[in-house]
Design brief:
Elements: E1 5-9, E2 16-22, H1 32-43, E3 59-63, E4 65-66, E5 69-70, E6 75-80, H2 115-122, H3 128-134, H4 139-155, E7 159-167, E8 170-171, H5 180-188, H6 196-211, E9 218-225, H7 241-250, E10 255-260, E11 279-280, E12 288-289, E13 298-299, E14 302-303, E15 308-314, E16 325-327, E17 334-336, H8 347-370, H9 375-390
Length: about 400
């Protein structure tokens, strides 16, 4: 059963995007400044396209927050689309004027997009109706909603971070800790990579793709530190934390794979090289410690108190300035695919969206475990849970 849910609405070139977060406890500190910070982080990154020069995303809190704290009612967030001014007639929710003919009708589906399948699913003869909603522009609303979920996590000393592992086949180092100096370098990097040499080669890969009128994908790491053990469950298939996280990550546009901990590396290794020993010691949660975290912080569908670590594979953006072959659905004639304004690389931006989705799932799991009435009750339940864990071993 979902305790915290996120619903988004709005089209890429419509008036605005809206996010509604339901299930947050009362008393969580929320500021528009914090939400806007994450919205800005989503918009930067080497390889972004022309849309980012138009949009400067900012949020308006429409409901669910008073005097800087949540009320326990649904939180409604709105992010306006500045490009709406250029699309008023095309995307108007009002009936079209007599004689109106769309200048931005889409009859040629783009390979790799939702266009063709969506036209069949919804019965649209103009695929503009599909791509407007399936566009990654929708993730601005997710980032806004995720920022509110991060506020709940922060109140329990849990933080979510991300970085780029690889772009276009160029791989950087893995980060094994949340050292402030490392994360400062990551946040300052336009490819979210702390290694200067690797970052330079990533930019070169992006430049080469741009010169070829092509795109590149990559690998994203998203992690949570401070998460208590026991979130999620082994009791039912749909309550497993890794399953919930994987579903959330796969919902992000262009994400094609999700790995937890060692991920696919575990498939070719022996068990003794995969599983993390449990040793006596004064750990954070109980009197036991782990010398490694190959499981990525999740065992048996539940958090185990270690850092939760995921890797996501992002495909190259399918909107190409040198389009692939397609078919005009009106005539059946072979033509080049329809082309929209696009990025060459959006891997750094995908990091921020992944943070938002991880924050949503973890906030949901925490409310499921600790209750949802108000933040002070959650904090008290959290402290009692920690004290019980300390008595579990030893």
């Amino acid at each position: 059963m979902t305790c915290i849910s996120l619903l988004t609405a709005g089209e890429s070139h419509g008036p605005a995007l809206v996010a509604i977060v339901e299930g947050l406890p009362a008393g969580v500190p929320v500021s528009e400044e914090d939400v806007n910070r994450d919205l800005a982080r989503r918009q930067v990154g080497y390889g972004r396209g022309g849309r980012m020069s138009i949009e400067r995303d900012t949020v308006v809190v429409v409901g669910g927050v008073r005097h800087g704290v949540t009320l326990g009612s649904p939180v409604c967030l709105q992010v306006s689309n500045r490009d709406w001014e250029n699309w008023r007639e095309e995307m108007s929710p009002s009936p079209a004027a007599p004689g109106f003919e769309s200048r931005r009708r889409v009859d040629v589906p783009r390979p790799g997009h939702a266009d063709l399948a969506g036209a069949g699913r919804f019965g649209h003869d103009d695929m503009r109706n599909v791509l407007e909603r399936s566009s990654a522009r929708e993730t601005a609303a997710r980032v806004a909603g995720g920022a509110v979920c991060k506020a709940l996590l922060a109140a329990l000393n849990i933080r979510v971070r991300s970085y780029v592992v690889a772009i276009g086949g160029v791989e950087g180092p893995s980060c094994d800790s949340f050292a402030p100096d490392i994360w400062g370098l990551i946040e300052a990097s336009d490819v979210r990579c702390a290694d200067i040499d690797a970052a330079d080669r990533m930019r070169e890969a992006i430049d080469a793709a741009r010169a070829d009128r092509d795109t590149v994908g990559g690998l994203v790491a998203v992690e949570a530190e401070g998460l208590p053990p026991g979130l999620g469950s082994c009791a039912t298939w749909d309550s497993r934390l890794d399953a919930r996280l994987a579903a959330a990550m796969m919902s992000i546009q262009a994400i094609k794979s999700v790995e937890v901990g060692l991920g696919r590396e575990a498939a070719s290794a022996r068990g003794s090289d995969v599983h993390d020993p449990i040793l006596p010691g004064d750990g954070r949660w109980w009197r036991a410690v782990r010398p490694s975290n190959r499981a990525g912080g999740i065992e048996g569908g539940m958090s185990n108190g270690e850092r939760v670590a995921l890797r996501l594979g992002m495909k190259p953006i399918p909107t190409l300035t040198s389009p692939l072959p397609s078919v005009d659905l009106r005539t059946g004639a072979p033509v080049d695919a329809h082309s929209e304004r696009s990025d060459v690389c959006a891997v750094p931006a995908a990091c921020i969206v992944a943070e938002a989705m991880m924050a949503l799932v973890l906030a949901d799991a925490l409310v499921e475990k600790l209750g949802s009435g108000c933040l002070t009750d959650m904090q008290a339940a959290y402290q009692a849970y920690r004290e019980r864990l300390r008595r579990t071993i030893g």
